[in-house]
């Protein structure tokens, strides 16, 4: 977090890096409100975060339970992810295989 057009918050040490496809260009992206991050502490984006996706219906159908937002990754500390579950791994693999 931290980037903005004016640049006053664009400090690399305070930013979460997201490729352009997942930030803006892809159907599943931050700018299209289908990817979001959630702070896990009062430190906000300066602490660990979790990543959620709002999956398209064709991927949701593969899940036993349907819900709007699905957590796909969670940090235990900044830059250190918790081990992924089998479901998270499947979802991330499907997302990685999607084309623009």
Describe this structure in words.
The protein is of the alpha+beta class and 100 residues long. The protein has one domain (12-97). It contains 3 helices and 4 strands. It has helices at 20-25, 57-60, 86-97; strands at 35-39, 49-53, 70-77, 80-81. A 4-stranded antiparallel β-sheet has the order 1-2-3-4. A hairpin with a 2-residue loop joins strand 3 and strand 4. The protein is globular. The chain starts with 19 loop residues before the first helix and ends with a helix. 7% of the residues are buried. The mean pLDDT is 75.
**Total count of helical runs of at least 4 residues:** 3
- Spans with pLDDT under 50 lasting ≥5 residues? none
Number of domains: 1
- The biggest beta sheet, please? 4 strands, antiparallel
Distance from N terminus to C terminus (CA atoms, Å) equals 24 Å
Strand content: 15-25%
Kindly report the average pLDDT value: 75
**Shape by Cα distribution:** globular
- Neighbour order of strands in the largest sheet: 1-2-3-4
Q: Give the radius of gyration.
A: 14 Å
Question: Strands, helices and their partners?
Answer:
Layout: H1 20-25, E1 35-39, E2 49-53, H2 57-60, E3 70-77, E4 80-81, H3 86-97
Antiparallel strand pairs: 1-2, 2-3, 3-4
Key traits:
100 residues, 20% strand, 4 strands, 3 helices, alpha+beta
Short description:
The longest helix is centred in the C-terminal third of the chain and has 12 residues, at 86-97.
């Amino acid at each position: 977090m931290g980037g903005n057009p004016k640049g006053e918050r664009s400090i690399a040490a305070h930013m979460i890096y997201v490729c352009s496809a997942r930030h803006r260009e892809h159907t599943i992206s931050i700018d299209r409100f289908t990817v979001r991050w959630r702070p896990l502490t009062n430190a906000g984006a300066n602490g660990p975060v979790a990543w959620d996706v709002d999956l398209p219906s064709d991927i949701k159908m593969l899940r036993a339970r349907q819900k709007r937002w699905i957590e796909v990754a969670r940090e235990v500390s900044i830059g250190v992810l918790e081990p992924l579950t089998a479901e998270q791994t499947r979802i991330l693999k499907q997302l990685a295989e999607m084309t623009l």
